[in-house]
Amino acid sequence: MNEMLINSRDLRFQLYELLGVEALTQRERFTEHSRETFDAALETARQIAEEQFAPHNRKGDENEPVFRNGAAETIPETKAAWRAFADAGFLAAHHDAEDGGMQLPTTIQQACNGYFFAANVSTAAYPFLTVAAANLVSAHGTDEQRARWLPPLLDGRFSGTMALTEPHAGSSLGDLRTRAIPQDDGSYRIVGNKIYISGGDQDITDNIVHMVIARIEGAPAGVKGISLFIVPKFRLGADGRPAERNDVTLAGLLHKMGYRGTTSTVLNFGDQGECHGYLVGEPNKGLAYMFHMMNEARIGVGVGAALLGYTGYLHSLEFARNRPQGRPVTAKGEGKQVPIIQHADVRRMLLAQKAYAEGGMALCLYAASLFDDTRTAPGEAARAEAQELLDLLTPVVKSWTAEYGCKANDLAIQVLGGSGYTRDYPVEQFYRDNRLNPIHEGTNGIQAMDLLGRKMRQHGGAGFKALLARAEVAIGEAQQQEATAPLAGEFERATDTVVATALALDEAFETHGPEAVLANAAVYLDLMGRFVVAWLWLRQATVAAQALGGAVADDTAFYQGKLQAARYYLRWELPQIDHHSRLLQGLDDTCLAMHEDWF
Amino acid sequence: MNEMLINSRDLRFQLYELLGVEALTQRERFTEHSRETFDAALETARQIAEEQFAPHNRKGDENEPVFRNGAAETIPETKAAWRAFADAGFLAAHHDAEDGGMQLPTTIQQACNGYFFAANVSTAAYPFLTVAAANLVSAHGTDEQRARWLPPLLDGRFSGTMALTEPHAGSSLGDLRTRAIPQDDGSYRIVGNKIYISGGDQDITDNIVHMVIARIEGAPAGVKGISLFIVPKFRLGADGRPAERNDVTLAGLLHKMGYRGTTSTVLNFGDQGECHGYLVGEPNKGLAYMFHMMNEARIGVGVGAALLGYTGYLHSLEFARNRPQGRPVTAKGEGKQVPIIQHADVRRMLLAQKAYAEGGMALCLYAASLFDDTRTAPGEAARAEAQELLDLLTPVVKSWTAEYGCKANDLAIQVLGGSGYTRDYPVEQFYRDNRLNPIHEGTNGIQAMDLLGRKMRQHGGAGFKALLARAEVAIGEAQQQEATAPLAGEFERATDTVVATALALDEAFETHGPEAVLANAAVYLDLMGRFVVAWLWLRQATVAAQALGGAVADDTAFYQGKLQAARYYLRWELPQIDHHSRLLQGLDDTCLAMHEDWF
Known about the structure:
With 599 residues, the first copy, chain A, is α+β, with helices and mostly antiparallel strands. The first copy, chain A, is built from 18 helices and twelve strands.
């Protein structure tokens, strides 16, 4: 069977040739690891994804969870997949060995995640939310909380959720109304309603650990008065096992266009006044903790979006190679029909998908490697720089992959034509599933504000400077190779445009104020996304060009493909930033000036 | 209730102020009509669409037709809607009064269609396919065929289908294998299989008239040997009523991502050797007849795509006005939450939708008015010019509306955020329904080849010259108004780019051959789409600017909105053709040069 989740040759290229992750094994935290252990983890992920996740992807879509007797029921395959994932240790992949973890680099962990997302994004959501919840407990919980909650979250007895959104507030978290009332025993009673809580109920695990944000009575209004709580579905007995039912009620399930296998829930906390919650960390710092976790979650969304794009690409590629239809332009309607991959326009659609899918994976893995660097790079300065760059890139990772992952899925449907529009092929489901990604974990509009309003200006623009320094290195390296020198020229021109735009906007913040500048934040986000992905394509092209000399047969074709995809991205997609830059530098006010009553 | 299908103020603007359709009543064919009869038709369409089509749009999606005992069963609302549509005379709207028609201009007919598409595209498909089938019979049938088949198609006793696609050939119609075997009585026996036949079976009408393309035994291979046949589900008795079952079998239903209420069928013709078919027109001219009809159908697809975008826009606008969330940038997180329409980025998404939806409707109605001109404009020269321009614009109408209608629906989801992704709101269905439009009636890739390979070069580029002449008039008029003069400048620059591109490609056809040029046909299609829609926005802006002087209250806001949407389109969307033009003029070979084995 052809690989339909990830092209493993590409994954090896990205991890070992492009990112050089083998060097991580020199770092103290990863000395027990080697290329062999990395490969073993990836192979296990591939196998479980193919055998336990992919086969019920369509079934989960067609049999979405049902609300019965106040609880959510899922198809049994979801639980089996969960169990396989947990038993293989993936819930604890990056945790310390002493906590029962594999102590894997995040880069490898995210590559493993890629397989699960590509195979079945709905079923994969349950473990990934659990990983996020466990990260919060691990990072901010007391020793007692860690001892109590972490083991069952890491071995898969319990699952986790992120309970942020409320019906009246949506993305505006500062407006949350859920209250936390202090009790004499140090715990809290939680009262409030949450909506869109993924995995908020299910029949997969013995217990569910909701990570809930709420306002302690008397806390400041807005984002400064938000605290984080552990709120379990079942409270634990003295033996640490689920005992009494906590006062968290499933009020209903939401029915989505895609991602249907994941329950999306409306939860009521404390309808009977008996919802126990346990404060995590300090009061009023909940949002900071959540954002810490959310930044990781945003990389996770990126991986999911990119890999849905990736599997769609592989499916449409397979179809295009095998579907005879029509003839070349030059054949004038005569001779046998040819596989549609021979039509230039089909190649365009495949090449764009390749650029988005492999480019998206490169972007996510690069961000993951920065995450590893923030923790293990040699020296404080290197770690700090990695953090600045990661902060800058996070909104780009989350939004670019979501936008272009969906676009890739759109093209996959188009390659299949009428077949792609039917439910006999999986590409229409990828298209529906992926459409959530520009919305959840902060809409793309919110990412745009985060990038232009915050990350570009944070610490004197340190993240942007770090990006430019690395871009310059990439240009220098690309100039050394005949095959990539023209691309280096293209990219250098784009760099000048990006710098000029950033400087102009920086000044405009002072001269015209944030409203005028931020009105076009979405345009800036796309400009930066194209620039960053072009940079990573330039790097891929350079590595491919270097390798081409000694390559043979299949590898030659692989590297040529990398070069051609880079050419596509740098010639077809990157130059569109010229137009973006003109709108931005001109502080175009078309959208800002539009009146409500003119619509 | 707010208008959720079409903004009727906009429709009046487009029909009466922009296109001046009232002038049509001066033409002989339409002398019985007046603004009042036009308005009455539009009002009837609106009412039936709102009352008989819209209410079961979701139900039809959730209860797709089922295959039972060899037949397709639909929900009963479909039949009721069909009946209301037929009883109001819309099946015969543009037909001659002597055939029982209303003799309405196509422009008004297509505007009426807009309501039905916006309300329920799946249910609307049945009558629109029937209209297309009736057009074929009317245009190419013998008197006897017209007498026999037209009345029941026009009064709704029978429905019609277009049976073109075959499983092994897809879009490559020249490869069809369905055979027609001549019989002594002048009829034919049809043998073959067709796929993706919309409305190919249903329980709505007494009979179904399939317009089937097939090859008469001994006919030339390829597109030159295709003939057109009437193949009914039931053969008619001497009294003209359905009698014996014809040998057309429903082999199965296809299950689609959207457009679910329309049956999509696999049909077998002549499994028992007893499938009777009746030749329409001359042998081997079937494809020309079909294309004649298909060109009308492509305008119809455009109306559907544009109006799905339009209704999505209205829904997201309503949501944005009423959903409080977050605060203005300048409020620094304080004060009450504001409706999200106050956020610049939400206004951007609404403005883009307005530009696509109203621009798409303008494009379709313009094409429809050209259609009227081909038949009724005073003088042969005017009719011929209208035909050239319509031929040129047809692929643009079909593909631009499909592409940007889908994009509008994508933005509608994004405006609604999490709500937009749930099936509690209609926008996700619009997004799924609309995704068929870039595929059927000739994929967008095929439209691109048609435009650049055929229509641009047809009759010495007469269509393109007609377009440029009209663009020049629009520039001149826009220059007269202060509000539109800057837009005229933008558009004039774009015109230069478009002309330069066309000339360069014309030369390249000679110097480099069709393969090199047509490889980037999709880029050319988008360039032309942006240019044509910008032209229509410039015209809308000019009419709005002229009207603003004497306008009051609500009308002032309406005209300001037109001006601002035109600014959006000409500033944000049009300039992207510079990049398109560079790729095209440089004969960029990135996609053409990509090898199959490099993927």
